[in-house]
Protein backbone atom coordinates (compact mmCIF):
# COMPACT_ATOMS: atom_id res chain seq x y z
CA UNK A 1 0.00 0.00 0.00
CA UNK A 2 1.03 3.62 -0.17
CA UNK A 3 3.34 5.21 2.41
CA UNK A 4 1.03 6.87 4.99
CA UNK A 5 3.82 9.11 6.31
CA UNK A 6 4.50 10.35 2.80
CA UNK A 7 0.76 10.86 2.33
CA UNK A 8 0.55 13.03 5.45
CA UNK A 9 3.59 15.04 4.42
CA UNK A 10 2.54 15.59 0.80
CA UNK A 11 -1.14 14.74 0.18
CA UNK A 12 -1.19 16.81 -3.02
CA UNK A 13 1.21 14.35 -4.65
CA UNK A 14 -1.27 11.54 -4.08
CA UNK A 15 -4.19 13.71 -5.22
CA UNK A 16 -2.28 14.46 -8.44
CA UNK A 17 -1.67 10.73 -8.89
CA UNK A 18 -5.37 10.02 -8.49
CA UNK A 19 -6.23 12.73 -11.05
CA UNK A 20 -3.70 11.32 -13.50
CA UNK A 21 -5.32 7.88 -13.15
CA UNK A 22 -8.81 9.31 -13.53
CA UNK A 23 -9.54 8.05 -10.01
CA UNK A 24 -11.33 9.70 -7.07
CA UNK A 25 -8.99 12.20 -5.43
CA UNK A 26 -11.47 12.73 -2.57
CA UNK A 27 -10.32 9.32 -1.34
CA UNK A 28 -7.09 11.00 -0.22
CA UNK A 29 -8.92 13.22 2.27
CA UNK A 30 -11.04 10.28 3.44
CA UNK A 31 -7.86 8.33 4.09
CA UNK A 32 -6.23 11.27 5.90
CA UNK A 33 -9.28 11.61 8.15
CA UNK A 34 -9.22 7.89 8.94
CA UNK A 35 -5.50 8.12 9.71
CA UNK A 36 -6.13 11.06 12.05
CA UNK A 37 -8.89 9.13 13.86
CA UNK A 38 -6.64 6.12 14.24
CA UNK A 39 -3.78 8.20 15.63
CA UNK A 40 -6.03 10.10 18.05
CA UNK A 41 -7.74 6.95 19.29
CA UNK A 42 -4.43 5.14 19.69
CA UNK A 43 -2.94 8.06 21.63
CA UNK A 44 -5.93 8.12 23.99
CA UNK A 45 -5.68 4.37 24.48
CA UNK A 46 -1.97 4.50 25.28
CA UNK A 47 -2.40 7.46 27.64
CA UNK A 48 -5.20 5.76 29.56
CA UNK A 49 -3.35 2.44 29.63
CA UNK A 50 -0.35 4.18 31.19
CA UNK A 51 -2.62 5.64 33.86
CA UNK A 52 -4.16 2.20 34.43
CA UNK A 53 -0.72 0.70 35.05
CA UNK A 54 0.11 3.43 37.57
CA UNK A 55 -3.16 2.95 39.45
CA UNK A 56 -2.70 -0.84 39.47
CA UNK A 57 0.75 -0.42 41.00
CA UNK A 58 -0.66 1.87 43.70
CA UNK A 59 -3.15 -0.71 44.93
CA UNK A 60 -0.56 -2.49 47.03
CA UNK A 61 0.67 0.78 48.54
CA UNK A 62 -2.79 2.12 49.42
CA UNK A 63 -4.00 2.14 53.00
CA UNK A 64 -6.97 0.07 54.07
CA UNK A 65 -9.16 3.16 53.88
CA UNK A 66 -7.90 4.16 50.41
CA UNK A 67 -7.88 0.70 48.86
CA UNK A 68 -11.60 0.38 47.93
CA UNK A 69 -11.49 3.68 46.03
CA UNK A 70 -8.24 2.75 44.29
CA UNK A 71 -9.64 -0.66 43.31
CA UNK A 72 -12.80 0.95 41.97
CA UNK A 73 -10.71 3.40 39.95
CA UNK A 74 -8.57 0.53 38.62
CA UNK A 75 -11.68 -1.39 37.59
CA UNK A 76 -13.16 1.68 35.87
CA UNK A 77 -9.90 2.34 34.02
CA UNK A 78 -9.69 -1.30 32.92
CA UNK A 79 -13.13 -1.02 31.35
CA UNK A 80 -12.24 2.26 29.65
CA UNK A 81 -8.94 0.84 28.37
CA UNK A 82 -10.72 -2.20 26.98
CA UNK A 83 -13.23 0.01 25.16
CA UNK A 84 -10.52 2.29 23.80
CA UNK A 85 -8.46 -0.70 22.68
CA UNK A 86 -11.45 -1.94 20.70
CA UNK A 87 -11.94 1.54 19.23
CA UNK A 88 -8.27 1.74 18.29
CA UNK A 89 -8.50 -1.68 16.62
CA UNK A 90 -11.59 -0.63 14.69
CA UNK A 91 -9.90 2.60 13.61
CA UNK A 92 -6.85 0.63 12.44
CA UNK A 93 -9.04 -1.81 10.52
CA UNK A 94 -10.91 1.07 8.86
CA UNK A 95 -7.60 2.70 7.91
CA UNK A 96 -6.18 -0.55 6.52
CA UNK A 97 -9.28 -1.16 4.41
CA UNK A 98 -9.23 2.37 3.00
CA UNK A 99 -5.47 2.28 2.38
CA UNK A 100 -5.87 -0.85 0.26
CA UNK A 101 -8.24 1.00 -2.06
CA UNK A 102 -5.66 3.63 -3.01
CA UNK A 103 -3.45 2.54 -5.94
CA UNK A 104 0.27 3.17 -6.11
CA UNK A 105 1.39 6.75 -6.60
CA UNK A 106 2.01 7.31 -10.30
CA UNK A 107 5.46 8.30 -11.50
CA UNK A 108 5.12 11.94 -12.63
CA UNK A 109 6.86 10.97 -15.89
CA UNK A 110 4.01 8.61 -16.85
CA UNK A 111 1.50 9.96 -19.39
CA UNK A 112 -1.80 11.22 -18.00
CA UNK A 113 -5.01 9.60 -19.22
CA UNK A 114 -6.56 6.25 -20.05
CA UNK A 115 -5.87 3.21 -22.20
CA UNK A 116 -5.54 5.15 -25.46
CA UNK A 117 -3.33 7.91 -24.06
CA UNK A 118 -0.05 5.98 -24.15
CA UNK A 119 3.06 7.58 -25.64
CA UNK A 120 5.10 5.73 -28.28
CA UNK A 121 8.74 5.89 -27.24
CA UNK A 122 10.26 4.20 -30.28
CA UNK A 123 9.80 1.80 -33.20
CA UNK A 124 12.27 -1.02 -33.85
CA UNK A 125 12.38 -2.92 -37.15
CA UNK A 126 10.23 -2.48 -40.24
CA UNK A 127 7.04 -4.47 -40.87
CA UNK A 128 7.20 -6.61 -44.02
CA UNK A 129 5.46 -5.41 -47.16
CA UNK A 130 3.64 -8.61 -48.14
CA UNK A 131 2.06 -6.96 -51.17
CA UNK A 132 5.51 -6.19 -52.55
CA UNK A 133 6.42 -9.84 -51.96
CA UNK A 134 3.40 -10.87 -53.98
CA UNK A 135 1.25 -12.77 -51.51
CA UNK A 136 -1.49 -12.27 -48.93
CA UNK A 137 -0.36 -13.21 -45.41
CA UNK A 138 -2.33 -15.82 -43.49
CA UNK A 139 -3.29 -15.26 -39.91
CA UNK A 140 -1.68 -17.27 -37.11
CA UNK A 141 -4.59 -19.71 -36.77
CA UNK A 142 -4.65 -20.63 -40.47
CA UNK A 143 -0.88 -21.08 -40.33
CA UNK A 144 -1.03 -22.98 -37.05
CA UNK A 145 -3.63 -25.39 -38.36
CA UNK A 146 -1.79 -26.03 -41.63
CA UNK A 147 1.39 -26.68 -39.67
CA UNK A 148 -0.56 -28.86 -37.20
CA UNK A 149 0.74 -26.59 -34.46
CA UNK A 150 -2.51 -25.23 -33.01
CA UNK A 151 -5.82 -27.00 -32.41
CA UNK A 152 -8.54 -24.72 -31.05
CA UNK A 153 -11.45 -26.94 -32.13
CA UNK A 154 -10.45 -29.77 -29.84
CA UNK A 155 -9.43 -27.27 -27.16
CA UNK A 156 -13.00 -25.98 -27.14
CA UNK A 157 -14.36 -29.55 -27.17
CA UNK A 158 -12.32 -30.46 -24.10
CA UNK A 159 -12.42 -27.25 -22.08
CA UNK A 160 -14.63 -24.63 -23.75
CA UNK A 161 -14.06 -21.34 -25.54
CA UNK A 162 -10.61 -19.72 -25.44
CA UNK A 163 -8.82 -23.01 -24.76
CA UNK A 164 -6.52 -24.77 -27.24
CA UNK A 165 -3.95 -27.47 -27.77
CA UNK A 166 -0.43 -26.73 -28.97
CA UNK A 167 0.51 -29.83 -30.95
CA UNK A 168 3.66 -31.13 -32.60
CA UNK A 169 5.80 -28.24 -33.76
CA UNK A 170 3.52 -25.83 -31.88
CA UNK A 171 4.42 -27.43 -28.56
CA UNK A 172 8.09 -27.56 -29.56
CA UNK A 173 8.01 -23.91 -30.61
CA UNK A 174 6.60 -22.80 -27.27
CA UNK A 175 9.16 -24.83 -25.34
CA UNK A 176 11.93 -23.37 -27.52
CA UNK A 177 10.66 -19.85 -26.87
CA UNK A 178 10.36 -20.28 -23.11
CA UNK A 179 13.71 -22.07 -22.77
CA UNK A 180 15.38 -19.33 -24.79
CA UNK A 181 13.82 -16.75 -22.45
CA UNK A 182 14.94 -18.64 -19.37
CA UNK A 183 18.50 -18.94 -20.68
CA UNK A 184 18.58 -15.20 -21.28
CA UNK A 185 17.26 -14.54 -17.77
CA UNK A 186 19.93 -16.77 -16.24
CA UNK A 187 22.60 -14.91 -18.20
CA UNK A 188 21.21 -11.69 -16.72
CA UNK A 189 21.63 -12.93 -13.17
CA UNK A 190 18.11 -14.24 -12.55
CA UNK A 191 17.53 -17.39 -10.53
CA UNK A 192 15.18 -19.72 -12.45
CA UNK A 193 12.00 -20.64 -10.58
CA UNK A 194 9.09 -22.97 -11.29
CA UNK A 195 6.37 -21.28 -9.24
CA UNK A 196 3.05 -22.33 -7.70
CA UNK A 197 -0.01 -21.38 -9.73
CA UNK A 198 -2.36 -21.50 -6.74
CA UNK A 199 -1.84 -18.90 -3.99
CA UNK A 200 -3.49 -17.81 -0.78
CA UNK A 201 -5.68 -14.68 -0.75
CA UNK A 202 -3.14 -12.71 1.30
CA UNK A 203 -0.50 -13.32 -1.37
CA UNK A 204 -2.84 -12.27 -4.18
CA UNK A 205 -3.93 -9.16 -2.26
CA UNK A 206 -0.38 -8.35 -1.29
CA UNK A 207 0.61 -8.19 -4.94
CA UNK A 208 -2.15 -5.66 -5.58
CA UNK A 209 -5.06 -7.73 -6.83
CA UNK A 210 -8.52 -7.25 -5.32
CA UNK A 211 -9.63 -10.82 -4.69
CA UNK A 212 -13.15 -9.74 -3.79
CA UNK A 213 -13.91 -7.78 -6.95
CA UNK A 214 -11.33 -8.64 -9.65
CA UNK A 215 -13.34 -10.40 -12.34
CA UNK A 216 -10.18 -11.67 -14.03
CA UNK A 217 -9.22 -14.05 -11.21
CA UNK A 218 -10.21 -17.72 -11.02
CA UNK A 219 -11.17 -18.65 -7.47
CA UNK A 220 -11.26 -22.06 -5.79
CA UNK A 221 -13.76 -21.29 -3.05
CA UNK A 222 -13.60 -24.72 -1.42
CA UNK A 223 -9.87 -24.29 -0.76
CA UNK A 224 -9.69 -20.48 -0.44
CA UNK A 225 -7.02 -20.40 -3.15
CA UNK A 226 -6.62 -18.36 -6.33
CA UNK A 227 -5.17 -19.23 -9.73
CA UNK A 228 -2.50 -16.72 -10.70
CA UNK A 229 -2.52 -14.71 -13.91
CA UNK A 230 1.26 -14.31 -13.71
CA UNK A 231 4.12 -15.84 -11.71
CA UNK A 232 4.73 -12.30 -10.44
CA UNK A 233 2.20 -13.09 -7.71
CA UNK A 234 4.08 -16.09 -6.32
CA UNK A 235 7.45 -14.38 -6.70
CA UNK A 236 6.25 -11.26 -4.88
CA UNK A 237 5.06 -13.45 -2.00
CA UNK A 238 8.23 -15.55 -1.93
CA UNK A 239 9.96 -13.22 0.55
CA UNK A 240 6.86 -12.01 2.43
CA UNK A 241 7.67 -10.90 6.00
CA UNK A 242 11.40 -11.25 5.37
CA UNK A 243 14.38 -8.90 5.51
CA UNK A 244 16.53 -9.11 2.38
CA UNK A 245 20.23 -8.42 1.98
CA UNK A 246 20.57 -6.20 -1.09
CA UNK A 247 24.10 -5.01 -0.40
CA UNK A 248 25.43 -7.19 -3.24
CA UNK A 249 22.82 -5.92 -5.71
CA UNK A 250 19.27 -6.78 -6.77
CA UNK A 251 17.69 -10.12 -5.93
CA UNK A 252 16.28 -11.40 -9.23
CA UNK A 253 14.05 -14.36 -10.08
CA UNK A 254 12.71 -15.66 -13.38
CA UNK A 255 9.44 -17.51 -12.91
CA UNK A 256 8.07 -20.07 -15.37
CA UNK A 257 4.44 -20.97 -14.85
CA UNK A 258 1.09 -21.56 -16.43
CA UNK A 259 -1.15 -18.52 -16.03
CA UNK A 260 -4.94 -18.21 -15.90
CA UNK A 261 -7.24 -15.30 -16.70
CA UNK A 262 -11.01 -15.30 -16.98
CA UNK A 263 -10.95 -12.60 -19.70
CA UNK A 264 -14.12 -11.17 -18.22
CA UNK A 265 -15.50 -8.31 -20.26
CA UNK A 266 -13.53 -9.29 -23.37
CA UNK A 267 -16.44 -10.93 -25.18
CA UNK A 268 -15.93 -10.55 -28.92
CA UNK A 269 -12.33 -9.36 -28.56
CA UNK A 270 -9.58 -11.49 -30.12
CA UNK A 271 -11.75 -14.60 -30.07
CA UNK A 272 -9.96 -16.18 -33.04
CA UNK A 273 -6.89 -18.29 -32.33
CA UNK A 274 -4.70 -17.95 -29.27
CA UNK A 275 -4.33 -14.19 -28.79
CA UNK A 276 -6.66 -13.85 -25.81
CA UNK A 277 -7.05 -17.15 -23.94
CA UNK A 278 -7.81 -18.45 -20.45
CA UNK A 279 -4.58 -20.41 -19.96
CA UNK A 280 -1.06 -19.73 -21.22
CA UNK A 281 2.59 -20.14 -20.26
CA UNK A 282 4.96 -17.33 -19.41
CA UNK A 283 8.49 -16.56 -18.24
CA UNK A 284 8.41 -13.53 -15.95
CA UNK A 285 11.33 -11.55 -14.54
CA UNK A 286 10.97 -10.25 -10.98
CA UNK A 287 13.40 -7.99 -9.10
CA UNK A 288 13.80 -6.82 -5.51
CA UNK A 289 15.92 -3.65 -5.34
CA UNK A 290 16.56 -0.63 -3.09
CA UNK A 291 14.05 2.06 -3.97
CA UNK A 292 16.83 4.35 -5.27
CA UNK A 293 17.71 1.76 -7.92
CA UNK A 294 14.14 1.03 -9.06
CA UNK A 295 14.06 3.36 -12.08
CA UNK A 296 17.41 2.02 -13.36
CA UNK A 297 16.26 -1.58 -12.86
CA UNK A 298 13.12 -0.77 -14.81
CA UNK A 299 15.21 0.30 -17.77
CA UNK A 300 17.28 -2.88 -17.46
CA UNK A 301 14.14 -5.05 -17.54
CA UNK A 302 12.92 -3.22 -20.64
CA UNK A 303 16.30 -3.73 -22.32
CA UNK A 304 16.17 -7.49 -21.59
CA UNK A 305 12.67 -7.66 -23.08
CA UNK A 306 13.89 -5.89 -26.21
CA UNK A 307 16.87 -8.24 -26.42
CA UNK A 308 14.48 -11.20 -26.40
CA UNK A 309 12.34 -9.61 -29.11
CA UNK A 310 15.50 -9.18 -31.17
CA UNK A 311 16.20 -12.90 -30.91
CA UNK A 312 12.86 -13.74 -32.54
CA UNK A 313 13.31 -10.94 -35.11
CA UNK A 314 9.99 -9.14 -34.68
CA UNK A 315 9.23 -5.52 -35.59
CA UNK A 316 7.87 -3.79 -32.51
CA UNK A 317 7.26 -0.54 -30.72
CA UNK A 318 7.73 0.50 -27.08
CA UNK A 319 4.97 2.46 -25.36
CA UNK A 320 4.87 4.38 -22.09
CA UNK A 321 1.54 3.31 -20.58
CA UNK A 322 -0.81 6.06 -19.41
CA UNK A 323 -1.61 6.42 -15.72
CA UNK A 324 -5.20 5.25 -16.05
CA UNK A 325 -4.07 1.94 -17.56
CA UNK A 326 -1.35 1.10 -15.04
CA UNK A 327 -3.30 -1.16 -12.73
CA UNK A 328 -3.22 -0.92 -8.95
CA UNK A 329 0.43 -1.71 -8.23
CA UNK A 330 2.46 -0.03 -10.97
CA UNK A 331 3.85 3.47 -10.73
CA UNK A 332 5.07 3.26 -14.33
CA UNK A 333 4.83 0.64 -17.05
CA UNK A 334 6.40 0.09 -20.47
CA UNK A 335 4.91 -2.30 -23.03
CA UNK A 336 6.56 -3.80 -26.10
CA UNK A 337 4.07 -4.46 -28.89
CA UNK A 338 4.87 -6.54 -31.98
CA UNK A 339 3.41 -5.82 -35.41
CA UNK A 340 0.60 -8.18 -36.40
CA UNK A 341 0.48 -8.22 -40.23
CA UNK A 342 -2.99 -9.67 -40.76
CA UNK A 343 -4.63 -7.13 -38.44
CA UNK A 344 -2.38 -4.15 -39.28
CA UNK A 345 -1.95 -3.34 -35.61
CA UNK A 346 0.46 -3.76 -32.77
CA UNK A 347 -0.08 -6.56 -30.24
CA UNK A 348 1.26 -6.41 -26.69
CA UNK A 349 3.90 -9.08 -26.08
CA UNK A 350 5.73 -7.77 -23.03
CA UNK A 351 5.04 -5.50 -20.11
CA UNK A 352 7.42 -4.27 -17.42
CA UNK A 353 6.24 -2.43 -14.31
CA UNK A 354 7.97 -0.50 -11.54
CA UNK A 355 5.83 -1.09 -8.45
CA UNK A 356 8.15 0.95 -6.18
CA UNK A 357 7.48 -0.04 -2.53
CA UNK A 358 3.74 -0.67 -2.99
CA UNK A 359 3.79 -4.49 -3.02
CA UNK A 360 6.60 -4.74 -0.48
CA UNK A 361 4.63 -2.68 2.06
CA UNK A 362 1.65 -5.00 1.71
CA UNK A 363 3.78 -8.14 1.94
CA UNK A 364 6.26 -6.96 4.56
CA UNK A 365 9.37 -7.33 2.39
CA UNK A 366 12.16 -5.14 3.75
CA UNK A 367 15.89 -4.53 3.58
CA UNK A 368 18.29 -3.52 6.34
CA UNK A 369 19.94 -0.16 5.77
CA UNK A 370 23.51 0.83 6.63
CA UNK A 371 22.37 2.41 9.92
CA UNK A 372 20.67 -0.81 10.99
CA UNK A 373 17.08 0.23 10.34
CA UNK A 374 14.71 -1.62 8.00
CA UNK A 375 12.62 -0.22 5.17
CA UNK A 376 10.45 -1.58 2.32
CA UNK A 377 12.21 -2.62 -0.87
CA UNK A 378 11.06 -1.84 -4.40
CA UNK A 379 9.67 -4.61 -6.64
CA UNK A 380 9.62 -4.76 -10.42
CA UNK A 381 8.41 -7.28 -12.97
CA UNK A 382 8.78 -7.86 -16.70
CA UNK A 383 7.57 -10.42 -19.24
CA UNK A 384 10.24 -12.28 -21.19
CA UNK A 385 8.10 -14.63 -23.28
CA UNK A 386 4.54 -15.98 -23.42
CA UNK A 387 2.39 -18.26 -25.54
CA UNK A 388 1.11 -15.16 -27.35
CA UNK A 389 4.53 -14.66 -28.96
CA UNK A 390 3.77 -17.64 -31.21
CA UNK A 391 1.07 -15.50 -32.88
CA UNK A 392 3.56 -12.84 -33.95
CA UNK A 393 6.31 -15.32 -34.85
CA UNK A 394 4.07 -17.31 -37.21
CA UNK A 395 2.60 -14.27 -38.94
CA UNK A 396 5.79 -12.26 -39.34
CA UNK A 397 7.99 -15.16 -40.52
CA UNK A 398 5.57 -16.90 -42.88
CA UNK A 399 6.56 -17.63 -46.47
CA UNK A 400 4.47 -17.83 -49.69
CA UNK A 401 4.23 -21.64 -49.60
CA UNK A 402 2.73 -21.62 -46.09
CA UNK A 403 5.96 -22.55 -44.35
CA UNK A 404 7.40 -20.45 -41.52
CA UNK A 405 11.04 -19.44 -41.16
CA UNK A 406 12.42 -20.15 -37.69
CA UNK A 407 14.15 -17.07 -36.21
CA UNK A 408 17.87 -17.67 -35.77
CA UNK A 409 17.62 -17.16 -32.01
CA UNK A 410 15.26 -20.12 -31.63
CA UNK A 411 17.00 -22.59 -33.94
CA UNK A 412 19.37 -24.00 -31.29
CA UNK A 413 16.27 -24.89 -29.24
CA UNK A 414 14.67 -26.70 -32.16
CA UNK A 415 17.58 -28.93 -33.10
CA UNK A 416 18.81 -26.48 -35.76
CA UNK A 417 15.44 -26.43 -37.60
CA UNK A 418 15.36 -23.49 -40.03
CA UNK A 419 11.90 -23.82 -41.62
CA UNK A 420 8.62 -25.22 -40.33
CA UNK A 421 6.86 -26.90 -43.21
CA UNK A 422 3.09 -27.46 -43.65
CA UNK A 423 2.04 -31.04 -42.94
Could you explain the architecture of this structure?
The protein is of the alpha+beta class and 423 residues long. The chain is built from 13 helices and 18 strands. The strands form 5 sheets. An 8-stranded mixed beta sheet has the order 1-11-12-13-16-10-9-4. Strands 5-7-6 form a 3-stranded antiparallel beta sheet. Strands 8-14-15 form a 3-stranded mixed beta sheet, with no helix packed on it. A hairpin with a 4-residue loop joins β12 (332-340) and β13. α3 (26-59) runs antiparallel to α4 (67-99) and α6 (140-146) crosses α13 (389-396). The radius of gyration is 27 Å and the shape is elongated. The mean pLDDT is 94.
Write the layout of secondary structure elements.
Blueprint: H1 4-9, H2 11-21, H3 26-59, H4 67-99, E1 119-124, H5 130-133, H6 140-146, E2 150-151, H7 152-159, E3 165-166, H8 169-187, E4 191-194, E5 198-199, H9 201-207, E6 218-220, E7 225-227, H10 232-237, E8 243-244, E9 251-260, E10 279-289, H11 294-311, E11 316-320, E12 332-340, E13 345-354, H12 358-363, E14 366-368, E15 374-376, E16 378-386, H13 389-396, E17 404-405, E18 419-420
**Cα separation of the termini:** 53 Å
Helix-strand category: alpha+beta
Strand order of the largest sheet: 1-11-12-13-16-10-9-4
Helix content: 25-40%
Radius of gyration: 27 Å
The overall average pLDDT, rounded, is: 94
Instruction: List unreliable stretches of 5+ residues.
Output: none
Largest sheet: 8 strands, mixed
How many DSSP-defined strands? 18
Q: What's the tally of helices? A: 13
* 3D shape: elongated
- What is the strand content? 15-25%
